[in-house]
Each structure stands twice: as structure tokens, then as C-alpha cells.
Amino acid sequence: MDDRHLGLSSESTGDRPPRLSSTTPLLPFARAVSVAGNPLFLIPLTVAAVSQNWRWAVAIALTTTIPLVVIIARNVRRGTWSDFDVSRRDQRLGLYRAGLPLLLLATAVLYFLDASPRMLRGVAGGLLIFVAGVLGHRFLKLSMHMMFTTFCAVMLIWAYPWSAAAVIPFVALVAWSRRVLDRHTWAEIVIGTAIGAAAGFFAVL
After folding, report:
1. CA 130 to CA 147: how far, in whole Å?
2. What value does the CA radius of gyration of the chain take, rounded to a whole number of Å?
3. CB burial class (10 A; 0-12, 13-18, 19+) of residue 196?
């Protein structure tokens, strides 16, 4: 998969070029961090780590992650969306419209699998993030990377307090990468972080 499909090419996003020169060693690192912070990777891994239930993690992957990967790849291939991150603001609503019904499906599947109330609250937290993205879309292209990275961070730290030493720096690195790659303004990053944290606390408290 090339940079275009990973959402790493400035030409594919319609955004400005990265803030670092293409010859700067930190630019590939920023791109790698951004890929590692992709919600499609983080969410099923976080569910598996926090719940220690692979059945629930697989259910999340089958109902949300894999369908979204297929939808995004198809739209990128057709030229409907510019890149795998759906970085262009005028295309982002399409991603929200695709994700919301999938999260509702995930909720129903997990309910029939007798998922714990906290697990269901976690999916509800994801729904809240998508709703916040839709409501805020008129004003900002909120960073989904930061909303879901922070959301996952809160849940991981709640489950494993010792993980904070690694999780918090990772969240900061993802924020840095999204700004360096010029995918978002600091306002979009900070507000996305706050929304993700609020959704995370909703899920665990």
C-alpha cells in the first residue's frame, strides 16, 4: 500500500505540504507515528487489551474495522475519497455516515454476545465521538486520530495504570505527527483530544 492509500501524501489530501522538509529524517517518523495512531488499528487492539476477551475484539473488528477498511479502500480506489485517512474536510462527513451505522451494529452484536455493561459503554463512547465529529464538522475538521487515540488511552490507563508511562507520550507523539504532517490545526487537535478524553471517561466511569 503506497503513501496515497495510507493518507500520507499531501497531494492526496488537498492539504498543505508537511511542515518538515521531505529530506528531514523526522518526516518518515511522523508518518509512521500517524499510521500507528490510526483508529482502525488502535480500536480492536484496545478492546482486546482492556476486555481480555478476544470474542468481543473480533466482533468489533468484523462489524466496524474491517467494513470501514473495505469502504475506505473502495472509495479511494474510485476517487470518491482522496486518501485512507479521508483527510479532506469536504469528504469527512461521508466517513461519519459510514461509521455511525456500523457502530450501532457493533452495539447490537455485543449485546447478543452478553458483553459487559462497561464494554457497551465503550462502544457508546465511540458513537459519541462520531456524533461530536458530525456536529463539529461545520466549524472544524476534528482530528479522528486524536479523538480515538485519547479515547483508547483513557481506557488503557484505567485498565493498566502502569501503562500511562508509555501511553501518554504516544498520545503526544500522535498529536505532533498530525500537526507536522499538516493534517490538522492545533485547535482541531486539542479539541479532538478533549472529546476523546471525555468519551473515554464516559466509558470507564
Report:
1. 9
2. 16
3. buried
Question: What residues contact 40, with CB distance under 8 A and at least 6 apart?
Answer: 65, 68, 69
Which pLDDT tens digit goes with each residue over 36-73?
999 999 999 999 999 999 999 999 999 999 999 999 99
Planar angle of CA 32, 170, 136, nearest 5 degrees: 90
Cα–Cα distance measured from residue 55 to residue 147, given in angstroms and rounded to the nearest whole number? 25
Residue 21, all three cell numbers = 522538509
CA dist 26 and 32 (Å) reads 10
pLDDT tens, position by position, 139-196: 999 999 999 999 999 999 999 999 999 999 999 999 999 999 989 999 999 999 999 9
Q: Which residues of 74-91 are buried (b: 16+ CB within 10 A; e: fewer)?
A: ebbeeeebbbbbbbeeeb
Tell me the whole-structure pTM to 2 decimals: 0.86
